[in-house]
Every structure is written in structure tokens, then in C-alpha cells.
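Page 37, continued from 36.
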């Protein structure tokens, strides 16, 4: 999978990289989500800068919030969850891998079923806010690289 990640703390321009990493595999109690939106919050930027939570992981995929579609489930999770649209919270809290990637494997309780409004992707593309608030980047199959570049651009300026 393609992902944005960092291996040391610092400014976005100095530490963020885009590359390919192995696809995660859902463990017992987890769901695998194909990310469609990755949210960038001030806490994500502070964590990347090393101003908050320095957990010491060798590689970190940033961002706590996101949304997507469940593509697989781990042991103990109902297979009927596959195909559900979900929003994700605390994706990178107390763990190294967040939502700035094509996939995330996360505890089922952190992937809450959601109904995404029609036109949300188009709204985001037409209204990319730069006000320091939460910014979601549309991640679609053909636009993954552009979306991750947008994540990096927004993070760079945060």
C-alpha cells in the first residue's frame, strides 16, 4: 500500500516521506479499512513535531481520523461488517499506524458505521480549507497519490 510516514520527529518538510509499505492484516477484534478520507488535526502535527506523545515507534503513519470502507475482518468480528462505510477515530493513538495510508487495520470499536453524504468528495475537492481546522483529503483509487500529496501539503503548512 502507499502511505505517508515518518521515522523521526520534526517539521513536515524534513521528515515526511511517501512510499510503499506492506498491507496491514486485521488481527483478532480488528477490521481492515480501505481509507477514502484522512483527517489532519493539530494533535497529529504536534505528534509529528515531537511536541506530544513520543512513543518511540521506528516508523509512524500519521493521522487519527478518517473514513473508508471495511474490506476484511479479523477473528471474532462479524463478516457482515465487510462493505460497511465507517468513520475512524484514534487511528494513530497508542499505535504506530494511522489513516494517512491506503489501508488501516484497527479495533472494530474504532471503526463506527457511517453514512457518507453524496458529493462529499466533490465538496472537499472544491473547498480545501487552509484555516488550521481539520482537513480531510479524498482518497480514491485513481487519486491516492494526489490525495497523499495534499495531506503532505496541508501538514507542511500546519
Amino acid at each position: 500500500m502507499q502511505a505517508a510516514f515518518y521515522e523521526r520527529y520534526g517539521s513536515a518538510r524534513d521528515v515526511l516521506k511517501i512510499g510503499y509499505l506492506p498491507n496491514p492484516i486485521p488481527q483478532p477484534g480488528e477490521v481492515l479499512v480501505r481509507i477514502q478520507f484522512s483527517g489532519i488535526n493539530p494533535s497529529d502535527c504536534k505528534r509529528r513535531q515531537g511536541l506530544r506523545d513520543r512513543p518511540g515507534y521506528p516508523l509512524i503513519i500519521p493521522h487519527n481520523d478518517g473514513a473508508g470502507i471495511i474490506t476484511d475482518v479479523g477473528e471474532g468480528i462479524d463478516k457482515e461488517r465487510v462493505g460497511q462505510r465507517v468513520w475512524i477515530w484514534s487511528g494513530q493513538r497508542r499505535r504506530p499506524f494511522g489513516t494517512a495510508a491506503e489501508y488501516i487495520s484497527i479495533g472494530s470499536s474504532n471503526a463506527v458505521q457511517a453514512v457518507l453524504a453524496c458529493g462529499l468528495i466533490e465538496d472537499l475537492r472544491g473547498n480545501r480549507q487552509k484555516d488550521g481546522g481539520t482537513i480531510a483529503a479524498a482518497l480514491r483509487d485513481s487519486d491516492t497519490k494526489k490525495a497523499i500529496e495534499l495531506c503532505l501539503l496541508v501538514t507542511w503548512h500546519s
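The longest strand covers residues 30-40. Flag for discussion at group meeting. DSSP finds four helices and eight strands in the chain.
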